[in-house]
């Protein structure tokens, strides 16, 4: 019975791997024109096609996933291919992760799922949908029988209109949020096309009816629909009669696709979507005057025609040019019962909404001011001097300058000074400011005099009682009491050993590394910690942890100095430097590492890591295995350095749920998927290093062809095709009968499996590399994952370092510790 269960389990695993891979491969093929019910896919499935799974028949537009500014989040969009301009989005406000799916159900409903919830849906279940079609116009259409449209993106626009797209009464364009988290909207309303800013009470700031650049074809009539036709924006009544047209370009080619985009700045910009080219913006914008948008300057600032923003004089003494009134309508507001006043801003200001909103009331100036003071939502008023119209606003954007009188007098509500609410401009505020300035000056003089006196007393006291020269700090006492410590040097001894720190080997964490020699002739690398505070903690951590660890394949700490404020570490000197300079040599003519040396370096590195993982008193995860951190001695024996960077775990603890630090290109997939960080993360990094040893190249090289650029993906493909000679370094001479090459490649591919539980331990890696056990064929399922994660961890030539820390319960530290370079 047990054998039957094992056999059944094995067959199930084969079935899942086989058909899972078939499904993955088939899903990665792009469709042209349409997809049918039953289709589903995610960004992960279509990583090879940049996340795009449906192309229009003319290949100008695509439907699929694109990344946001956060590379781990994605939007489902229709995009113009050559310009990469997004013209429609299903989930602008709710981005998803790479494993979330778009699903076209058999019942005809199309939706975007995030986990167990639906982010977006066409709501077309059981309506007879037969296909989802991406038309050559860029319109995404869900069609039913007889090609009848059940849903389309043109009928549900986001922030963009395309040529031929009807924008009718009831539709709305909404911009992306601005830096102040304001959005703008465009819609057909009251027989006109109107732009509004999304204040709590929306305020219009432009309409086509008042646009003086339009051409009038028919007087009278209400706008019902609009569309971009050639180089003009046409406005039609409900019967299809042409009322107005707005010419936005001199290019009148009817074959050009145009896009009108409502930007986060509140402007409508027109783009020419050229096939096979970029999207060029026309100089014509709506509105024409940049000062007529709500955020041309900050709130209450005045926008001038020369693109200058300036705070009105009456608000210049207030913080950030703000009146200090948040909301006087809320009972919880601290200012709800405070007296208010109106300060006069003058008659040479205009406001963008004045030409588009009805007056609050009609009265004289005093009546308008009294009404505003009694209205808790009124923050500013504009009074028409000739019309008697009183305009009140509950929120104010940018103001506009006018050289002559704008026909309005303007007042802004501010807290009253000392209960004075006369509204004459707050003239009493100047006296208060003068008093405050005098008080500040007096206090400043007293404080400075006190500091000078204390400094004088301190210096006199210091001269009388000099500090004993042999006094040691608390940190020094700590180091003296550590058992099993390396040799303790004086600062003078290390200064002499390095010839006054003359030969600098490199820059390490929190200090520089210098070459030196002790009196017995042995060479050392001295790390001089620069600075105190964080440097002291780093020093104590390195001495207490690294100093107690001894292994032939780990760089050894020979001594330290803890004298006064000086903190230095003395390591054994590694004459041949780092592995990185040998396998990525810039000088191709010099000596190189042969295959025997490379495999011995790999085994030595593996033994050093295995000791850290399994044989120390506490488990140590290195977190930054890469060629730069593998050093070579006189005999090219590998020694792992910088394991002081690792954070420690209790032996019983197998996982650490946190982010980690390391170098792009060597980081395991769990680093971005928020899975546990463990010693298996080091195994992944070792696999990348082993591949680079075998191939003599970096794991990502943009100078290679697209097939070869990501080396792990290429290696998976070549081992599947049995083309091993295409994987290893072409400069190497390798015996065809040397099985160690094939074994090393398989070990490397096992180490970089996406699933951490499939990766071997470092002790198992040693056994496989030394030929002590059989190495099975690694599964190919990680190709999808390796392609996905290569997008996140493309290793640049100098190697970037990620942010974050690798922490644990066994030893927690935010300090970067490093050995000699």
UniProtKB/TrEMBL annotation:
Residues 499-772 form the Protein kinase domain. It catalyses: L-seryl-[protein] + ATP = O-phospho-L-seryl-[protein] + ADP + H(+); L-threonyl-[protein] + ATP = O-phospho-L-threonyl-[protein] + ADP + H(+). ATP binds at residue 528. It comes from Kingdonia uniflora. Residues 39-155 form the Bulb-type lectin domain. The chain crosses the membrane at residues 433-456. It is found in: Membrane. Residues 1-27 form the signal peptide. This is Receptor-like serine/threonine-protein kinase. It is an enzyme of class 2 (transferase). Keywords: ATP-binding, Disulfide bond, EGF-like domain, Glycoprotein, Kinase, Lectin, Membrane, Nucleotide-binding, Phosphoprotein, Receptor, Serine/threonine-protein kinase, Signal, Transferase, Transmembrane, Transmembrane helix. SUPFAM superfamilies: alpha-D-mannose-specific plant lectins, Protein kinase-like (PK-like). Its EC number is 2.7.11.1.
């Amino acid at each position: 019975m047990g054998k039957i269960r094992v056999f059944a389990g094995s067959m199930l695993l084969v079935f899942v791997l086989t058909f899972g891979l078939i499904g993955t491969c088939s899903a990665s093929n792009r469709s042209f024109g349409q997809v049918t019910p039953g289709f589903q896919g995610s960004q992960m499935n279509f990583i090879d096609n940049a996340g795009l799974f449906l192309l229009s028949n003319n290949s100008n537009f695509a439907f699929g996933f694109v990344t946001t500014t956060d590379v781990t989040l994605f939007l489902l969009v229709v995009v113009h291919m050559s310009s990469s301009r997004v013209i429609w989005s299903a989930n602008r406000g709710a981005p998803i992760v790479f494993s979330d799916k778009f699903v076209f159900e058999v019942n005809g409903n199309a939706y975007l799922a995030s986990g167990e919830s639906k982010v977006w849906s066409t709501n077309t279940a059981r309506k007879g949908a037969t296909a989802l079609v991406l038309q050559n116009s860029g319109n995404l259409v869900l069609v039913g029988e007889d090609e009848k449209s059940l849903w389309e993106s043109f009928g549900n626009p986001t922030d963009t209109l395309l040529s031929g797209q009807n924008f009718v009464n009831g539709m709305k364009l909404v911009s992306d949020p601005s830096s102040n988290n304001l959005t703008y909207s465009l819609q057909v309303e009251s027989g006109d096309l109107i732009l509004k800013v999304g204040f709590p009470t929306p305020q219009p700031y432009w309409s086509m009816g008042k646009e003086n650049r339009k051409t009038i074809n028919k007087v009278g009539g209400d706008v019902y629909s609009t569309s971009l036709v050639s180089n003009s924006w046409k406005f039609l009544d409900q019967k299809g009669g042409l009322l107005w047209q707005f010419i936005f370009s001199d290019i009148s080619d009817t074959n050009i696709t145009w896009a009108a985009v409502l930007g986060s700045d509140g402007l409508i910009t027109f783009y020419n979507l050229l096939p096979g080219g970029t999207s060029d913006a026309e100089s014509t914008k709506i509105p024409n005057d940049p000062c007529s948008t709500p955020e041309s300057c900050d709130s209450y600032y005045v926008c001038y025609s020369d693109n200058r923003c300036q705070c009105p004089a009456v608000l210049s003494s207030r913080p950030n040019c703000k009146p200090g009134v948040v909301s006087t309508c809320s009972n919880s507001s601290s200012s709800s019962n405070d007296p208010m006043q109106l300060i006069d801003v003058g008659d040479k200001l205009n406001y963008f909404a004045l030409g588009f909103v009805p007056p609050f009331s009609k009265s004289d100036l005093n009546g308008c001011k009294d009404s505003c003071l009694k209205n808790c939502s009124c923050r500013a008023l504009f009074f028409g001097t000739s019309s008697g119209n009183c305009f009140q606003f509950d929120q104010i954007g940018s103001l506009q300058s006018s050289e002559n009188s704008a026909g309005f007098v303007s007042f802004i509500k501010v807290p009253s000074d000392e209960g004075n609410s006369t509204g004459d401009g707050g003239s009493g505020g100047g006296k208060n400011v003068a008093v405050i300035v005098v008080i500040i000056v007096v206090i400043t003089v007293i404080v400075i005099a006190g500091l000078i006196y204390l400094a004088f007393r301190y210096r006199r006291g210091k001269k009388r009682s000099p500090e004993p020269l042999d006094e040691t700090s608390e940190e020094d006492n700590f180091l003296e009491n550590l058992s099993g410590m390396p040799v303790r040097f004086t600062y003078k001894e290390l200064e002499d050993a390095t010839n006054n720190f003359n030969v600098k080997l490199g820059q390490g964490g929190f200090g520089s590394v210098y070459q030196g020699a002790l009196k017995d002739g042995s060479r050392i690398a001295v790390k001089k910690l620069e600075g105190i505070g964080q440097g002291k903690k780093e020093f104590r951590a390195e001495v207490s942890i690294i100093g107690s660890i001894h292994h032939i394949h780990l760089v050894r700490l020979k001594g330290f100095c803890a004298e006064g404020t000086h903190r230095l570490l003395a390591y054994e000197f590694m004459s041949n430097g780092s592995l990185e300079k040998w396998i990525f040599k810039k000088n191709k003519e010099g000596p190189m590492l042969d295959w025997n040396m490379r495999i011995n370096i790999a085994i030595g590195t593996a033994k050093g890591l295995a000791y850290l993982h399994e044989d120390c008193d506490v488990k140590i995860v290195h977190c930054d295995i890469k060629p730069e951190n593998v050093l070579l001695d006189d005999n090219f024996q590998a020694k792992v350095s910088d394991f002081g960077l690792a954070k420690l775990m209790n032996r019983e603890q197998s996982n650490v749920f946190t982010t980690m630090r390391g170098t792009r290109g060597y980081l395991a997939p769990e680093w971005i998927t928020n899975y546990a960080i463990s010693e298996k993360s080091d195994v992944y990094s070792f696999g990348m290093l082993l591949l680079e040893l075998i191939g003599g190249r970096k794991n990502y090289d943009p100078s290679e062809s697209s097939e070869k650029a990501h080396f792990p993906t290429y290696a998976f493909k070549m081992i599947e095709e049995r083309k091993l000679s295409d994987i290893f370094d072409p400069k190497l001479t390798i015996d065809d009968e040397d099985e160690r090459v094939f074994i090393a490649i398989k070990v490397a591919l096992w180490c970089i499996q996406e699933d951490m539980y499939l990766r071997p331990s470092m002790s198992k890696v040693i056994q496989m590399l030394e030929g002590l056990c059989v190495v099975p064929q690694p599964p190919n399922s990680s190709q999808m994952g390796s392609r996905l994660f290569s997008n996140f961890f493309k290793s640049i030539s100098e190697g970037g370092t990620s942010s974050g820390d690798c922490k644990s319960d066994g030893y927690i530290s935010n300090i970067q510790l490093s050995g000699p370079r």
